Amino acid sequence: MDTHLFVGLAGYLGRPEEEGAVGVFRKSITEGTWQHVLDCNNAHVVYVHPNSANYIFAGTDDGIWRSTDKGLTFEKANVPRDDVGIWSFLTLEDNPDVMFAGGSPIEIFKSADRGKNWASVAAPVLEERCSGPFPPRVMRMVQKPGKPDEIFAAMEIAGVLKTVNGGETWQDVSDDLVRLSSRPHLQSSIVQKETLAEGMLDAHAITICPRQPDEIFLAVRMGVFKSSNGGSTWKDIEIGRFSPTTYGRDIKVSPSDPNTMYVALSVAAASHGGGIYRSTDCGKSWSRFDKVKVNGTIMSIALNASNSDQVFIGARYNGEIFGTLNGGGSWQEMSLPGKVKDIYSLACG
């Protein structure tokens, strides 16, 4: 079966006057041209179901769109309200028909039928530690290996959530992120002046290495952090030892190698440089993996679950996409055609 790359595009708050395509694009990774398969909404996340690549999901500013034919066509899923924005998906490892979706404002939705119908299961009431030009978002979720009821969620400008009962209730585990912001090099306040903890609470992605299931890795504006006690405390892994840029936008574990992780590091949310770094020892050490020069913040990493040599990256501007089919030995440009808005998400399957 042919493997495809999917790209989610959306507008950017800082450039409302710019025009371009939004939605989802699809392309075979080895041949053919890009197809604009969903063009009616901003798509902030695109997701391939890990148990069936025929099922593709797009999280948009108008709810969830679902494909059952490998992204050729999409239908709108049944979500409780039309005004909910969706930013993340998670499939439970022990029950692939059960999925979670993360919304903005912060809300968790659940499906028991592989994403056709959704219900709201939690709208956590969080302490507002900082405010921004948009409501906080559930950017990424990860299930703890061996403990299926324990799930962690990274939230943009709101820190980290945790559930230990399969999503019925959630607790904020961000206190120690705020404590770390007392260190001068971890202080940041860009969109408001209420707190210098804004950068530490600006969480974009979260993951867990199966070989080290008690270690949770979090990518935030200020770098990459790790918790070994369920989020009670967080430790700076000092990613700056390995990379000249430290703005963490994405972090993923290889689906075929439990020791290998990838992180996208750039200068800032709106920047013109960055790189992908790889760890083969569960996050202890990192080295530059890509061999390309991007012209925008690297927003997303896509990994092929059936072929660990295939890795793809999307940079924010001009539909810029690069990929390697041979484990990083060589890279090819696969950028989107025509005028498009900002890349937010890549997926492969």
Protein architecture, described:
The structure is a single chain. The chain is an all-beta fold and about 350 residues long. The chain has helices at about 175-180, 200; strands spanning about 5-10, 25-30, 35-40, 45-50, 55-60, 65, 75, 85-90, 95-105, 105-110, 120, 135-145, 145-155, 160-165, 170, 205-210, 215-220, 225, 235, 245-255, 260-265, 275-280, 285-290, 300-305, 310-315, 320-325, 330-335, 340-349. It has a domain at about 1-120: YVTN repeat-like/Quinoprotein amine dehydrogenase (Methylamine Dehydrogenase, Chain H), CATH 2.130.10. Helix content is about 5%, strand content about 45%. The protein has a four-stranded antiparallel sheet with strand order 3-2-1-28, with no helix packed on it. A four-stranded antiparallel sheet has the order 4-5-6-7, with no helix packed on it. A four-stranded antiparallel sheet has the order 8-9-10-11, with no helix packed on it. The radius of gyration is 18 Å and the shape is globular. The model has no long low-confidence stretch (mean pLDDT about 95).
Features:
globular; mainly beta; 3% helix; Methylamine Dehydrogenase, Chain H; 349 residues
